[in-house]
Amino acid sequence: MDIEKRFREIRVYTEDNKPSLHKPVLLLFALSQCYQNQNRLIPFETIDRAFQQIFTSFSLEGKAENSHYPFGKLENDGIWEVTDTKTLQRTAVGHLFKGELLSKQVRGGFIPEIYGELISNKPLILKIAHEFLHRYFAQDLHTALLSVLMFGDKASLLPLQIAEAHPDYRQHPLHPPNDEAQNKIMVTTQNGYIAYLNSLHSLSANSANALAESQATNRYFAELYQAFPIVDQMLSALQDGERVVVLTGHAGDGKSTIALDVLKRLKNLSPNEPLNEMLKEREEISGSPFGSVTIVKDMSELSAQTRLQWLQEAFAGTGSWLLVSNSGPLLDTLAKL
Questions:
Q1: Contact 55, 211 (CB under 8 A)
Q2: Disulfide: which of 47, 215, 231, 233 matches 221 by Cβ 3.0-4.6 Å?
Q3: What is the CATH topology of the domain spanning 212-336?
């Protein structure tokens, strides 16, 4: 089976000579899961969350909420499987319904033959991923996308061109010498850690999943992170009866990073190990002798209606809650409450 040919033949919807990025984004995420030795079939909820994060964080053209379109349409390319596909409803043009995919906990992934070839051949995964990057995404996004998708666990396999200051130059092998200045390029180095550092920059004005949420799954994060002393106080408060703890401040203060630390401590996870998946909007930790704890990682990213609903639930329900929010949305929602 020619795996590379199968991926090159995948049909991508084009309008006004611009390809839709929905299929390429989903495929890059699915390839990253293979690269990390994850299960073949992935819950649609997981795909949808990652899909929306990529679209919003990188300000890609297209609707971030339409992850269900490529999820269903990839079946037609002969490389993708959707569980219980024959029982699912479809629109006139063959699209699945997002609500049904979520409510029925539908999963999807590469067919067994494709998955088997990929999982045993990491260089092939990287080669296919790079082809999709070069075909559909701007060059300046490649390094950050690879880092966010965690293709960088084995940096030596990645042909990343990370430019660094260097006094030596060499002739570019692909072009004949004509203009000496134009045909010299800086010596570059392959360095996954630099790629990770580059991913820390704000790529757009969109704040959703800007830093802590994506760094939670990156293996380099623990080497840089220094725990906040306030984490111990918050844990003590959350475990001392039923409490609603509110963590507020300006954007970029480190609130979501603190929430990540609290989550790891409550789940007895190693502070030096990355999470297997990105933070959800709402994380619920049960089974503790202190009772349940619900963490809302950033109320600022929620709709006004959802903020109010969850705030009401926090004060009226059982268990303890940790609510993270920028000050403006928090004050607005408290006023409505």
A1: no
A2: 215
A3: Rossmann fold (3.40.50)
